[in-house]
Amino acid sequence: MFEQFRKNFPIEDNKWQEYVSRFKKIEVPARTKLLSEGEISKRMYLIEKGCIRVWYNNNGKDITTQFFFEGNMVSSIVSFRKKIPSPVTLETIEPCIVWWIHKRDFDKIIEEIKAIPQLRDMLIDIVFDRTFNYMTHFISFIKDTPYQRYLNLINERPHIVQRVPQHYIASYLGITKVHLSRIKSKLAKKK
To answer: Where is the Cyclic nucleotide-binding domain positioned along the sequence (predicted)?
Structure first.
C-alpha cells in the first residue's frame, strides 16, 4: 500500500519504515462506522480499497458531505485536530481495507516532517485540496440547481456516480431519491 507514496517522501528509508510501522491495517465490511457523530476522533484512515462516506444527522436524516476512495486519507478533521466531538460520522459504503494511525503517532510524524519543506508543502496541498472540495460543494448548493449539481458530479467526479449507491448521491446533492430519478430521466431524454 505505502509503496505508491514512497517516491514522494524525501526521507531516509529507516525513518520511512518507522512511520509506516505506526499504521495498522484492518478490513471492514460495508456500512461499518469508523467514527460516530459525537465521538472524539483519535484515528486518521488511509484507504487501500473501498469507499468511505462522511455524513451528519440532520433531524433524523443522513446528509452526506463527502466521499473518499483509494489513496485518500480521511478523519473528522475538526475533531481529530481540536479534540472535540465529531460533527460527522465516517462510514464505509463498500467492504474496505484501511490503514489507521492513532492521533498521537500522526502528530509525532507531522511534527518531524514539518521541518522538511517538500513534505510540509505536500501536507498544505492536501489540506488545501480538501478545503477546495468542501468550498466547491458548498458554493454549488448556493448557486446551482440540483440538476446542475448532478451534471457537475458526472463531469468532475464520475467515479462517484459509478460506485456510490443512488440514495447516498441524492443525499450528497441535497435532494430526494425521487428527485434524482427525475433528473436522470431528464438527462436520458436529452441523449
So the answer is: 11-110
Sign of CA dihedral 56, 58, 64, 66: negative
Q: What is the CATH number of the domain that holds 111?
A: 2.60.120.10
Q: What is the pLDDT of residue 137?
A: 86
- CA 148 to chain centroid, in Å, comes to 22
State the residue range of the domain holding 49: 3-116
Q: Cα–Cα distance between 113 and 110 in angstroms, integer? A: 5
For residues 149-164, b (16+ Cβ closer than 10 Å) or e, as one string?
bbeebeeeeeebeeeb
Q: For residue 156, give every residue at least 6 positions away whose Cβ sits within 8 Å of its Cβ, in sequence order, or none.
A: none
Domain membership flag for residue 13: yes
Q: Which residues pair with 34 in a beta bridge?
A: none
Question: Quick one: average pLDDT of 22-40?
Answer: 97
| Lookup result for grid cell 460543494 | 137
What is the full DSSP assignment across 32-84? -EEE-TTSBP-EEEEEEES-EEEEEEETTEEEEEEEE-TT-EE--HHHHHH--
Instruction: Kindly state whether residue 145 falls inside one of the protein's structural domains.
Output: no
pLDDT over 90 at 42, yes or no? yes
